[in-house]
Amino acid sequence: MKELINSLKGDKVIWAFIALLALFSFMPVFSASSNLAYMRHGSGNALTYLLKHAVHIFIGFFIIYQVHKIPYHYFRGISMFALPIVWVLLIYTLVKGTVIDGANASRWIQIPFIGISFQTSTLAAIVLYVFVARYLSKSREVEPTLKQSFIDLWIPVFVTLALIFPANFSTAALIFAMVTMLAFIGKYPLRYIGLILGVGLVSALFFVLIAKKFPEAFPNRVDTWISRIDNFMGDKPDEDIYQIEKAKIAIATGGVYGLGPGKSVQKNFLPQSSSDFIFAIIVEEYGLFGAMGILSIYLLLLFRFIIAAHKSNSLFGKLVVVGLGFPIVFQALINMAVAVELLPVTGQTLPLISSGGSSVWMTCIAIGIILSVTKKEEEIAAELEEKQKREEALQRLIDKQLQEDEDEIEEVDENQEKVNQMKSSIKDKIMEEDYSIEENPMLAIKGMRKK
C-alpha cells in the first residue's frame, strides 16, 4: 500500500479529497439503490448495485492514474483532433440518443458490444475546455481581433453548444458560463466578452422561441427542459415538482443529526434517489452535519484547485485546472441547489458520489488531467530543489578546498616564520659571543666591529 501511495504523483491533497468522496459514496448509493432493486427485481437487495458502483469507482481511479501520467501539454494537441470527433458523437446522440431508466431523455448513446450508456456532452465539455485553454494561452502575447478570435475560438464553441443545447440545456449553460470565465481569466478583451455574452443570450432566446412555435421540429428534450423552467417559475404539478417535494421532505426529516445510515424513507419514493437527488438522501440519513461535511469537501477541493492553478508556471496549465476543476465543484453546487429548490431540475449528478458509469469516468478524466498539471509542477520543483542541492554541495566542496589551501598557506607561513626566527636567534647568538683571532679570525673581526 505504501508503494502504491508513493507511486501517486501530483497534488496529494486533491488525491485525498477525491478518495474521500469516492469512499463516502458507497453508503448513500447502497442505501438509495434499494428502491431500484425492489422495483426491478422485487427483492430489495441492493448488493448488485453496490458492486456495480464499486466497479465504476475502481475503473474511475484506474483512469485517473493512467491519465495523470500523461504530460498535460499533450492534451493541447489532442483537443484539436478530438473536437471534430466529439461533434460527430453529439450529432449521433441527437439522432439516435437512447432513453435511460424510462426518463424522457436522449443524452446518452449505447456503446456497441459493451452495453454501457455514454453521455457525450460530458466528454464534449472536457475537450472544449482544453481547446479554449489552448487558444487563450497561445494568443496571450498578441491581442486577438474580434474576427480572428470569432473564427478560431467562438465558432467551435457555439457549434459544440448548439449540438448540446437541444438535449441538455443545463450542461450547455454550464459550459458556456465556464468558457466565458476562462476567457476572462485568460485576459480575453472584456469588450469582446460582453459582445459574445449578448450573442449567446440572443441565440438561446431565439432557439427557445422557435422551439415553442414548432415543438415537433425538436423531438428531443427541448419540451422537457422548457417545461421544467416553466414549472419552476409556477406551481403546476408534474413529475419534477413531485421529486422536489419528496427531496424537501427528505431534507426536513433529516434535521440536524439525520435518521442514520440506510434509514432513509424518501428513497422509496424518489425516482432518481441514487443519482440526481442523492444529496437529499444524504441529508435525510446524515443530517445537517453530513450535508455540511459534503459541502465542505467540495469547497476545499475548489480551494485546492485555485492553489494548483496559482502554482502552475504556464498559462495553459492554469486555464486547464480552472476549466476542468471548477465545473466539478459547480456541478455539485447545482445538484445541491436543485434538491432544495433553488434551481429547476437539471439532471446534474453529484460528482463522484452519485451512481453512474460514464459520468464518474468523465469526472475522473478531468481530475487526471488536473493531477497531470500538478505533477509537472512538482517535477519542476523537484528539479529545482535537486539543482539547488547540487549547487550547495559544489559550494561546500569549493569552500572545503579553499579552507585547505588557506591552511596550507598558513602552515607555510608559520614554518617560514620559524626559520626566520631561528636564523635571527643564531645570528644574535653569534654576535653576542667573543672569538679570538686564532679560533675564528672572521668572527673575531665582526665582534670587534660590533663593539
Task: Based on the model shown, name its key terms.
lipid-linked peptidoglycan transporter activity, two-stranded antiparallel sheet, 451 residues, coiled coil, 74% helix, transferase, 2 strands, mainly alpha, transmembrane
What structural category arises from helix and sheet content? mainly alpha
- Count of helices? 14
Contiguous uncertain segments of 5+ residues? 101-105
Please estimate the helix content: over 70%
List the helices and strands in order. Answer: HHHHEEHHHHHHHHHH
Overall pLDDT, averaged? Answer: 80
Beta-strand residue percentage? under 5%
Largest sheet: 2 strands, antiparallel
Keywords: Cell cycle, Cell division, Cell shape, Coiled coil, Glycosyltransferase, Membrane, Peptidoglycan synthesis, Transferase, Transmembrane, Transmembrane helix
Pfam families: FTSW_RODA_SPOVE
Family: Belongs to the SEDS family. FtsW subfamily.
Transmembrane segments: 13-38, 50-68, 74-95, 107-133, 153-185, 192-211, 286-307, 319-340, 352-373
Structural commentary:
It is elongated, with a radius of gyration of 37 Å. The chain is mainly alpha-helical and 451 residues long. The chain is built from 14 helices and two strands; from the N terminus they run ααααββαααααααααα. Mean pLDDT is 80; it is low at 101-105. It has helices at 2-7, 12-41, 47-68, 74-96, 120-138, 146-164, 169-185, 190-213, 222-233, 239-254, 278-311, 315-339, 358-432, 441-450, and strands at residues 108-110, 117-119. 74% of the residues lie in helices and 1% in strands. A two-stranded antiparallel ribbon has the order 1-2. α2 runs antiparallel to α3, α5 runs parallel beside α7 and α12 crosses α13 (358-432). The chain has one domain (8-384). The relative contact order is 0.12. Its main location: membrane. GO terms for molecular function: lipid-linked peptidoglycan transporter activity; peptidoglycan glycosyltransferase activity.
